[in-house]
Amino acid sequence: MRTSDKEREQVAEILRAAMTEGRLDMTEGEERLAKAYAAKFRDELGPLTADLPHGGLSALANTPEAKTATRRALRRHAWVIISVASILTGLWILSGATFFWPAIPLTFLVIGFMKHARYQRWRYEYSLGHGVAPWNGPGWGGPRQFHSGHRGC
Predict the structure, then answer these.
(1) At 140, phi and psi to the nearest 5?
(2) CA separation for the pair 14, 145 (Å, rounded)
(3) What separation in angstroms does the CA of 23 have from each of 4, 16, 20, 52, 55?
(4) Cα–Cα distance between 48 and 39 in angstroms, integer?
(5) Tens of pLDDT along 72-104?
(6) Cα separation of 148 and 135, whole Å?
(7) pLDDT at residue 32 above 70?
(8) Which residues cross the membrane (predicted)?
(9) String of b and e for 47-67 (b: at least 16 CB within 10 Å)?
(10) How confident is the model at residue 14 (pLDDT cuts 50, 70, 90)?
(11) Is 39 within 8 Å of 8 (Cβ atoms)?
């Protein structure tokens, strides 16, 4: 299958990040960049990053662009939580209830924010189409198989 300009540029970005980290010297990095831009098929791109840790994605997740995008997404998420908290607190004040019921939905919103922050690297890699959800990665186990032939839900 033919490769797209976007795929070639993603591999080139991974190679540039690996050169910045010192995983590739300038000569080898330039050779691989030339091969990445000259690639016509997807099969030609895989070997260029195969010997880098996690296919080079760990280097890509540490680029300034990735960190800026993560900070921007977390800031946006925090403002949504603050807005919802303000609205719910206002409704609580207007209702005159003694129990602070907005704590229940806000707890779930804060947990979601913490998960968002925790999986920031995975989210960036997944957006490129290379990442694997942490629960699908090695060491997490798969669905349980029953011995009676029942496949489960």
Answers:
(1) -95, -15
(2) 38
(3) 26, 10, 8, 8, 12
(4) 10
(5) 988 999 999 999 999 999 999 999 999 999 999
(6) 26
(7) yes
(8) 77-94
(9) ebbeebebbbbbbbbebeebe
(10) confident
(11) yes
Q: Determine the Cα–Cα distance for residues 86 and 75; give it in Å rounded to an integer.
A: 16
- The torsion angles phi and psi of 133, rounded to 5 degrees, stand at -60, 140
Contact 12, 26 (CB under 8 A): no
DSSP structure string for 8-47:
HHHHHHHHHHHHHHTSS-HHHHHHHHHHHHH--BGGGTHH
| Torsion sign across C-alpha atoms 117, 119, 125, 127 | negative
> Residue type at 142?
G
Work out the number of other CB atoms within 10 angstroms of the CB of residue 97: 11
